[in-house]
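Our preliminary data section would be incomplete without showing what the modeling component actually yields. Below, a chain of 403 amino acids is followed by its predicted structure, encoded as tokens that our downstream tools consume directly.
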Amino acid sequence: MADIFLSGNVRTNLMAMQKIGRDMGTVEERLATGLKVNSALDDPANYFTSEGLKMRAKDLENIMDAMGQSIQTLKAADSAVETMTDLIETARAKANQALQTRDGFQRDEYLQQYNELLEQIGKVAEDAGYNGKNLLGGAGNNMSVYFNEDFTNRIKVESVDYTDISQSPLFLTAKQQLVPAAAPQAAFSFAAGGAAQSTTLVSATTTPFAAGLLEDDVITITGGTTNQPSTFRIDDDMTIADFMNELNNAFPNVKAELVDLGATVEIRFQSAEPVTITHTPVATGVAANLALGTGAYPSGPTTESDWSSDAQIRADINIIREALQEIQSQAGRFATDLTTIQARQEFATSMTNHLEEGSGKLVLADINEESANLLTLQTRQQLSQTALSLTTQSEQSVLRLFG
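Predicted structure:
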């Protein structure tokens, strides 16, 4: 096909329309994407600068995610510390209650509750982990929290070991209770035909005494602080439970308990002070005595309670006070670390916003401006089409000369 030659006016108008079309395509792309720089071809300097800012903002977002998890780890530890503090306060209350009584059995009961509280303190520390990190778990649980994308700024949260409170800075140890060092062997003994025998009973609650005790036998308890004898007589309808109640009511400082041995039941005694329990059988009138030493079962070595003296209880109260001071100091350290991390997290959030805003200023399109540009280009396009039509019509007028 032979070349087609356009006149100068037609070519000028055509090129103008082509340029307007390209400009309209650019404006429409900006309106569609919201960006005035869609690739490095549009503006290399602004494009790569914007990408660098966005990349740093993304890195900071990842750092903030890690900071958020670190905050949760600290909160878990802080919550555990608060619970441990409550338990230690309760343990101190038990020690103070023990100090207010002179009853050895009550002290031993408070001591048992005290030991149970100490056990729970360590278990709370064991359960304080979050996402594999336990700041109360000791070695291997230190936590580094980074604040910038190149990991040059950080804070190191030091862990402490509260899982074994006896070896930790709390220095809380369980105390020895009033318990036999060996299994108790002796039971309440009676004289029968001149020889002593253990009291063996058929039932612990309902059956009357089957052996050893008879109606009108007399039980006498002497010794202790008052040194006044307490006596009661066996009744024909008395059950073992009645007998135990009489014993405990007649002499509160004697602790009588039933031990189930299967086919038989034994009565065993414990006393906070030296006492003597005497059984006088009605048949013989001969008394048989059973002496109880302080804090002891009738036979076998025993271990004395750590809270048998006021001085020991006061010493433990002082240890508890020091433990409270230590754990409150640790709570303060955690609170300081938590405040620091939260402050840096807020700063990182603000910094991320600045970076994203700066990146946008380099590449984002002004929608209002681009809309106005599109309207202007559409008007120009219409005018160019009209101009091209007029130019073509002027060339067509030449054909009339040959008509």
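Residues 191 and 288 are 5 Å apart (CA to CA). Helices lie at 8-33, 44-99, 104-126, 240-250, 310-363, 367-396. Preliminary results of this kind motivate Aim 1 of the renewal.
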